[in-house]
Amino acid sequence: MKGFKYPSLIFSDSEGKIFDHPELTFAGRSGDRIVLPDPSELVPLPCGSQLFTLPGRVPIGWDEVSFKPVPRMKIGSREVDCTGVAAFLPPGYVRTLLPATESKPQTPILPLWAYSSAGWKDGRFWTTGILIDPNPHWNPRYFGNDQSLKKRVAISLKSGNGNRLLQQLARCALEYHCFAAKNVFYRRWECPIPTSPTCNAACIGCISLQPSECCPASMERIRFVPTPDEILGVALPHLREAEDAIVSFGQGCEGEPLMQWKVLDKSIRELRSKTDRGTINLNTNGSFPDRVAKLCDAGLDSIRITLNSPHPTYYNLYHKPKGYTFKKVVDSLLIAKEKGIYTSINLLVFPGFTDREKEIEGLIRLIRKTELDLIQMRNLNIDPDLYLNAMGKGSGIGISKMIQILKREFPRLQFGYFNKAKENFSTSG
């Protein structure tokens, strides 16, 4: 845009030190296409973000005429090999562009993070993203790994009578820095309830289990199935006492919770026999509609079903379902809606794929058929090239434009990032 000052390209040297380029501005990537970001996409890097170097990736910048890779750069008296830099945005933000890079031969697979474009301007870092959900409960300032958390964890474990689920959540809070797990020990907001060590899908970007030839998983999957008593030991006091209380089955540190549906069924019934306070939520792949129906009857309040695409072909390429079909996923949404349950999808957003025209058209058909209440837009944690190698090359019309189209088609459809307490089912944000 004429007269508009874009952020400068940033890159790192072999020691991880970050520099801004004196001449080139930063670019972004939509799928496999390098683009100049729309100024409306630019936001100062939000509090709670992280910066990553991208091994084996050469940064690409814009010189007012063309996009140029920068493999080497002179810094003072020395010449350095340049490595791309990406931002990881905090919860509530959906990225709109990938980092603009090109890969060297035999490039290593990147760890499971959501990589966003990043630049430098006016003494601060910038990125491309949208604050899709301003829920203040997830502000990073509430989730420091401070001494207060460690003391609360120690007290809870001491009085937990060997509850294995509580021990798992303590590890998630302290070792994996899981925001939701930290909530357990502060008795506030959303509380995770992992239950399943097994899964009936093999998602390419699974953060709890990866084949040895790929990148390491972000966390170790739970190795046991908690008993209903262990679940109640964590969930019941949370529902009774926490502000805006939510307990959620289906977490990043487990497989598919519907694999343990009988445990969930008994737990939900017992919870609801003791309190009607709070929200009981299920995060799932929706592979067993009959089990979803039973859990709705048991007392479930809301359901969130994860998918990367509304098209069976692309769904299967990413999720690699074992023994179920995409039709089952849609049927679960329909059944939950028929049961009066608040329904949402966890849409795994990838710039340059999710916003392709055919993806948007398919999403419109899915929303119309299932009458969804909410789309949770979650950044897909995966190496961009790994994902595009599976999904095929292409680019999108822009994440912002996609959201505008969906809002125009479905004025009552809600957009967000987080699960909602039942008191907020009818409100946006």
Description of the molecule:
It is globular and about 70 Å long. A hairpin with a 2-residue loop joins β9 and β10 (78-81). It has 429 residues and is an alpha/beta fold. Helices cover 29% and strands 26% of the residues. It has helices at residues 147-158, 164-174, 179-186, 228-241, 261-274, 289-298, 312-319, 326-338, 357-370, 384-391, 399-409; strands at 8-12, 18-26, 28-30, 33-35, 42-44, 50-54, 57-62, 67-69, 72-75, 78-81, 84-88, 93-95, 98-99, 101-103, 118-121, 124-131, 188-193, 243-249, 279-284, 302-307, 342-349, 374-379, 414-416. Strands 1, 2, 5, 7, 8, 12, 14, 15 and 16 form a 9-stranded antiparallel sheet that branches. A 7-stranded parallel sheet has the order 17-18-19-20-21-22-23. It folds into 2 domains: 8-131, no CATH class; 136-424, Alpha-Beta Barrel (TIM Barrel), CATH 3.20.20.70.
